[in-house]
Amino acid sequence: MENTDFKFVSEEKCREIQANLKTKIVKDNTFELEDIHYIAGVDLAYWKDAVEKAVCCIVILDYATGEIVEEVNCVGEINFPYISGYLAFRELPLVMKCNEKLSVKPDLYVFDGNGYLHPRHMGIATHASFYLNKPTIGVAKNYYKIEDVDFVMPENEQGAFTDIVIDGEVYGRALRTCKDVKPIFISIGNYIDLETTTSIINKLVRKDSHIPIPTRYADIATHKMRSIYR
What's this model's pTM, rounded to 2 decimal places? Predict the structure, then answer.
């Protein structure tokens, strides 16, 4: 695959890489639900010293029980600048380095970020799938507006959702995981359909948080490890 080291290249080259990968996205399930046993939550936290650094944390949960079975982290310098729409080029080197530490192999990854809900359908969850070779889901806490299209607020009840449609295509969903709490924004990453994505995310939400527990635990872990490393 091109640019596996993710060293800085031009924005034009990044767009070319995304366009090539976009043609390989699979919007259907490539698995049976009964084969999903372990789900990974992935998140990163940043800080700056003399250089910009980040810590990536991956937390593995038992899908049936919600119990944490493994947690790993990896810290490193971030050498790729922030360019809107190209987050994967900053984060994937650290994600993949962290992933190599896992002894439990996840059946599915949930990212704190977007997947198909992206101007070129290549958010971090989708881009990462081509390296992880596993189904992925993107879950964002904030809405990434594309082509000036706003989302429609779901009804105020648990499990309510509205599709995010841009130019006649469904990019993702605004999902209300808890009543009286703002929605989250979900999209497929790769190798999974949107209905299954919605069902899995709903099952991963607990009463004490409207964020699915894989990325919630990963977020907690990144803040903890950042305070240690910085």
Answer: 0.95
Amino acid (1-letter code) at residue 66: G
43 marked as part of a ligand binding site: yes
Q: For the chain, what is the domain count?
A: 1
Residue 220 lies in a domain: yes
Is 16 within a domain?
no
In the chain, the amino acid numbered 123 is: G
Residue 185 lies in a domain: yes
Compute the distance between CA of residue 140 and CA of residue 130 in angstroms, rounded to an integer. 20
219 is in an annotated binding site: no
Q: What is the pLDDT of residues 192-230, one digit of tens each?
A: 999 999 999 999 999 888 999 999 999 999 999 999 998
Q: What is the pLDDT of residues 93-139, one digit of tens each?
A: 999 999 999 999 999 999 999 999 999 999 999 999 999 999 999 99
Return the ∠ at Cα 145 (arms to 142 and 146), rounded to 5°: 145
Q: For position 123, which CATH number holds?
A: 3.30.2170.10
